[in-house]
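Marked as duplicate of an earlier ticket. Keeping the data here for the record.
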Amino acid sequence: MNKCKRILALVLVLILTVTAGIVGVNAATADTAEVAADTASGITVYFKGDGKTTPYVYYWNSLPQNVEVEYPGVKMSLDSTQTGGNWYKFTFKDLTKVNLIFTDGTDTLEGQISGELSRTTGEWWYKDGKWRSYNPDVPRDYDSSDMREDTIYFIITTRFYDGDTGNNVHCWDDPQAGNPDSDPAWRGDFKGLIDKLDYIKALGFSAIWITPVVTNGSGYDYHGYHAMDFATVDVRYESEGATYQDLIDAAHEKDMKIIQDVVWQHTGNFGESFFCPVFEKDLSADLSNLEESMIPTDYLLESYGLASPEAYYAQKPAVQYQQRLDLMKNLSSSSQNSTGSHPSSTDFTMDKVSTSDKYNPNNYYHTGYFQSLNWDDWTCKYAQIAGDCVDLNTENPAVAEYLVDTYSDYIDMGVDGFRVDTVRHISRLSLNTMYNDAINQAAAAVGNPNFYMFGEICCRFSQVWYRDHACESVQFYTWDEPDTSLTSQWNYDNSAESINENMNLTFEHYEKYDSVNNQPTSTNAFLNGIDYHTPDYSKSSGMGAIDFQMHWCFDSAGGAFGIAKSGDKYFNDSTWNVVYVESHDYAPDQSQKTRFTGSTQTWAENLSLMFTFRGIPCLYYGGEVQFKAGVQMDVGPNAPLEDTGRAYFGDYLEGDVTATDFSEYTASGTVADTLSSPLAKHITKLNAVRRAIPALQKGQYTVDSKYVSGNMAYIRRYSDAAEGVDSLALVSVSGGATFKGIPNGTYIDAITGDVKNVTNGTLTVDSIGKANARVYVCCASGFTGIDGAIGETNLTYLK
């Protein structure tokens, strides 16, 4: 297999001879070289100083003409007009691109106060190691609204759209998978997503959930779940002018949100830069080549008496893996965890933490004590769930502090929400004590009180409680701790003894709260009669959830609707649940590991329910055209990606699309055909209907027979006097219904525009076909009504 084009990092080589005649520009010369005037074109950079040292800018390799200066560069000017203070400015006239480094003006390499950077046309602010296209000290105008007002389009970034072929690269397991040069695992990128934001907006989605962006390291890491450095963005996603910050800004300019997939439970098995730096990634090397790009650190080599990286790689792969895993986890435990449904007394000893100075010395990871894994009980919270998913010790305050601090930086960039991976493999006590509040507070501190987290509590089960374990169930994680008997004992120092005690507290928590009896209930999702009431979030954990129960039962809309009605009272507020039919991991129960195999009509019926019932609808990329239906979702590096449910989608997106608003667009080429498919049109209309009716976004619901009769029928209402909103909708999916005890007045169906005048508190919907829907909106005086049908009418299923 030929190698894809290598990703090359620019390398600055400065040869400084410490003599008066050769050293670079002195301070006096730098003052005279300073560019002081603003210009309507060119590049302007701002640097946030420390108030003590005046920064300089060293630059070279510019376009369209090459302009450069001798090291250490030119002194920047203090710009007193910038909010926040200590902002220094420099303008490059008539340039469209430049490489630069900020320095302290001294003639040594140690005087550099940034790494090597580059910028293109525009104004750019550099603070705390990050570029922004705005002054980060100025509160953003972007409205971070309630996430329930949005619908979510979920993509694997590398498999969505290839905007820059220059950053394509194979994983080093691509040869095993058989991925050709025309379709390397790392193919889609941020530029491609930016280019196709209008496609997603044309479908009507206003939030985009993207797979993890952090620097990864493994043989098959295109999905982003094998972190090597949580603090940096993987260079394989980025292009000139298409950094992660550029993506966030571009989405916000279109009134769209970015939801970042985050992993707190594990790293990859090549270590992580803070927790266990056993490898460094050489970004100038061939990133598809393990031995060229992944360089063992001295820490790894010296730990095993190895003289060189070549000596490490000369060992058998199994030995290599064992060595790095031992440094990360400490595998030498002479005992192991019990295998009962709850921890036993033997699990409370110090045997489960590391006291070694060499192997896992800080207890950043769980140790080799946890060797017996049962996916369905307490052991799944402390054991390694896969070879490339090395489990962090989430009960260690130092782990929590690093993760919270690091992911707060992404919030500061403008990320609107987190999808939190593998939540069921973390104790709720740990999350509620050290993570959830801290993350939400970090978001509020930067002006985003509507930041939203939802967790993957993976419960592949079609009952309300997961295998009779409350602590393993989805709804359990939406609640805060009911008392302080355990949280008050939490230890915040990082000794092995304290970490062991914290783990013991999570064991006690499991024993105390695992029974499905006496679990809390809530009315937050339910109408009081047909009246909306203010929800009580005093007992909320601060983290919502993916609705795995509905997901698992979506072989039919009726099945999903039934499980929701049975279990909603056990959620703190199920109107926040993220609801999908399929994901990158699973489809519903009858197909499980393949992309959804149901008919187009079944798909449409599921969507009609999702977009009108409680919760936040989410669509996995390609579902709008039944992309790869029936194909196995994920087989690892054992088949080409093209033959899996994670295939490249970009071929469907070729052509031009311009979204003039959500669900409104013009398009040409293949993408126009994609948007014209029956399911795509179905989704586009459902998005438009939901966006126009507040009750469908944030409304509580009732199925009480006193007010509703029908197989899939419900009343939804949302009221907010401060907003001047009182939205009432009567919904029927796939069949007839009767609504009773409702306000008199005019009701308009958002699907067809049909008008009914209610005079006796009753409205009847005649029988409609499978997947069809009726959404009668109350337009009586005092209610938030609509003018007629919303979106295109007489579609294949909505008619």
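See parent ticket for discussion. The first helix runs from residue 27 to 33.
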